[in-house]
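Protocol step 4 of 6: record predicted structures for both targets in the notebook before any analysis. Target 1:
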Amino acid sequence: MRALVLLLLFAGMAAATSAAAMPACEPAPPPQAAQDDASPIVPGSVDGAVDVAPVPLAELASDSPWLPRIEAAADELLAALKSRDVRRWKPLLGGRWLGAGDQRAIERLLDDRCSAFAAVLAADTPPARKILGWTVPPGYSADERTEIAARPGAEALVCWSAKEGGDRRWPRSAAEADNARGRGFACARIVHSSLAEAPGWRAFIELPAGAGGV
């Protein structure tokens, strides 16, 4: 019995030492103030056409013709990121147009145990997913809204979370989809095109401040 107690004591000390040696992950950053958000209010909108302000994200409508295509792209992207195989995820993030610096930054992001992607990539079961779009600002005219709806393409933010339902949070604006350490979700932007000369999709991953960008 004494030997068992000593064994458990040493095991506990070793675990505590190991935990102490591991740096603590940073808490989630506070929400950014509205004036700090320089994200485009509507994908593809002309700079200066309307006052730039953070636009709330809204879940992509279930009857959107783009939803099945965005969902399929999101499934393919997540599987590639979980593999951590650059040969699988690089083509989805621009291929030869993905710079060497951005590629290294993404590799570090995927390997960082404190990154927003860490829990999502390590999850044994499929993480929760939310597909979000930008709401059209009230200042847009009917003609502008019609023009946006008629574009041969669409983009959406796809976010994943490994947290349980009660603890799960989603970004409220594009500024919060920055994949900063401590976020309870990880996000990627998927741009889909139906143009005959360039059909298909590409993903973009926002990298935390100071890490570059894609």
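Target 2:
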Amino acid sequence: MNITKVILHYKPVRSLNMKDSSRIKFGIILFLISILLSFALLLQKPTEPKESRIVSSFEGKNSAATISYALFTKQQVKVKGENFPVKFERDLETSLEIQEIPIIWLEYTDEKNQTTKVEIPKKAQEFIKKRWLNTLRYSYQNQSTNDRETKVNIQENYLNDAAVYATTIVDFEIVTPFGKRNISQEEAFEIMRIVAGLAINRYEELQNMSLQVNLQKNYE
């Protein structure tokens, strides 16, 4: 079994602020998730040529990952994601549950630089929704407790769920310009990682809005 070589380049969403410690923790958690998902996905049946390269980035409300399959003609696949506008109601916890699920799709570029958008199957979108909500809730729960044992349990559940979601969606079929096939291991990995990144971006937006609301109440 050939192991996929994955190269990840992260681009900070914005400069660090007073929540440096929190952002560093999120980065470490995403790194651990990446390792866990890599091992979990390698146990699945291959659905694409294994010689590939992945470059990812997060910029504001958008994120994208480019997967180049060296053995699949000159095919290049991009996993893209975009958040809907943020919504805020009453407080941070309430606002977590009213956020719209981000749009995730695959984008193929052929040798003539023509692009084709490929939708994620509805069954796979159910797991994207679970990943999205799970990340938002995890972010809130993890910052709402100082108990170490509770934090460990929360993190373990979050990591386990992430692995389950990624290894499940490789069973779903997509229709590409080159025919029907299952979602590849690389694509499953990037879909879940991108959803988590978008969710963390959204959580930080909601945190800032919550702080502003609380400050305003204090001045009233």
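Step 5 preliminary note on target 2. Helices lie at 20-42, 92-96, 122-143, 148-169, 185-219. Residues 171 and 182 are 6 Å apart (CA to CA).
Proceed to step 6 after PI sign-off.
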